[in-house]
Amino acid sequence: NVHKLEQFIRSDGELNFDVETAIKVCRQATYYDDAAYLAKKFNQYDWYVHIQIEDKQDYEAALDYINKLPSLQKKKENIKLFGKHLMDHLPESMTRFLIELCTNESSSPDPDMEPDILAPMQPDDVDTMMEYPPDPEELIPLFVNRNDCLIEFLEAIVLKQPDASSQVYNALLELYLRDSQNEERREMRTKQVVDMLQNEQARYDPDHALLLMQLYRLQPGIVILCENRGLYQHVLDCYIENNDTRSIMELCWRRGQEEASLWVQEKRSGGSITLGTSSPVLCC
């Protein structure tokens, strides 16, 4: 009798049964609400999220519950298990949650949930007690086929954490370049690439960045990175390849005194600026 089962499960008295077994029985009998009630009442965190996602497909309830878990460790464990499901069904909400999680701005724990620190301490629990947010780069795989959300996530990370890892900056740089292939967004994305390359705080890897600039043939990026390294010959090659007369002359006037070979190379172009580059891979 379903009514009697619910009365028994939801009674205020002491329950003399194994909670985990009861949850499994309720799930097998498709009494998902009762299973969820038991899991939530007895702080069976993982079971509750399992039920909401796998049995009830209530992704919003699952994400809200994870957000209010009493420890970062529990949140990270559930994101590892269910993050892809949540991203597939709640991309915007999940993106905001991950930003808050990585920047320690997530919601306060639910006071009805017993924090893990009340459990008996085990010898291996010392590291667990020193909770740290997840590394943003570890969450990037959750954003498969969600480049717009990944850009939003990475932009928020570098804004709030300028000392983020090179993997974060490299990934954001590549996303900008990839999206710059869209004609409507090309100007905006190119500006974002240039801004990042000129930002002294940005921790992208210069070698990787140069490879990306070459791959996507972005002249402004190649010029910035080569100039940062003093590779003025390569910069000039790039300008010559693109018949950019004004930039050629400006570079020669600006750097020709310290590197006279720039003038020699410019003269060899015969004024027509059609001379091939000695380093084609660096040209756009």
What is the ordering of alpha helices and beta strands? HHHHHHHHHHHHHHHHH
In whole angstroms, the N-to-C terminal distance is 75 Å
Query: Which spans of ≥5 residues are poorly predicted at pLDDT below 50?
Result: 116-129, 272-284
Number of strands: 0
Rg from alpha-carbon coordinates:
28 Å
How many helices? The count is 17
The largest sheet is: none
Brief summary of the model shown:
The chain has 17 helices and no strands.
Explain the overall architecture.
With 284 residues, the chain is mainly alpha-helical. The protein contains 17 helices and no strands. Helix 2 runs antiparallel to helix 3, helix 4 runs antiparallel to helix 5 and helix 15 runs parallel beside helix 17. It is elongated and about 90 Å long. Residues 116-129 and 272-284 have low confidence and may be disordered.
Layout of helices and strands:
Blueprint lengths: L1 H8 L9 H10 L3 H10 L3 H11 L3 H9 L4 H18 L1 H12 L23 H4 L6 H4 L7 H14 L5 H14 L6 H13 L7 H11 L2 H10 L3 H10 L3 H11 L5 H8 L16
Helix pairs in contact: 2-3, 3-4, 4-5, 4-6, 5-6, 6-7, 7-10, 10-11, 11-12, 11-13, 12-14, 13-14, 14-15, 15-16, 15-17
